[in-house]
Amino acid sequence: MIAKRNTIQKQIVFDVLTKMHNHPSAGMVYEAVNAEYPNISRATVFRILAEAADEGRILRLKLNDSTDRYDTTTFHHHHVVCRECGHVADVDIDFDEKKLLDRAVGHEDFCVEKSHIEFVGICSKCRNKIKNL
Ligand SMILES: [Zn+2]
Ligand SMILES: [Zn+2]
Fold first, then answer.
1. What is the pTM for the complete model shown?
2. Nearest ligand, measured from the Cα of 87
3. 89 CA to middle of ligand 2, Å?
4. Which residue in 8, 15, 26, 78 has a CA-CA distance of 20 to 30 Å to 64?
């Protein structure tokens, strides 16, 4: 019975995460799950997300030194991050990342395996808030 319950809980957490579209932290996912399914514990939600990220079924993002955020879009893509409120959105731009990597290769005799590019700034909501101060 426990295995079955785990499967159902996993499905619920995935469904909630998929609907969120805002690259939520584990805490944000827990709050959304808790609103509908108060019997699923915080620890369970955190564990399900961590396991799914380890298995590569979702992405764990380490952005702008904030807490880990989760993303159901698992292919390689980039993000804009608001340094005020932590809002995260996907960036859809085309550039030759391979070329960038090639140029980094050879520096300090490093074998470069991957890169991490993120765009940090202030979102429109926060800009408006600042303007209205
Ligand atoms: Zn913001
Ligand atoms: Zn994303």
1. 0.81
2. 1
3. 6
4. 15
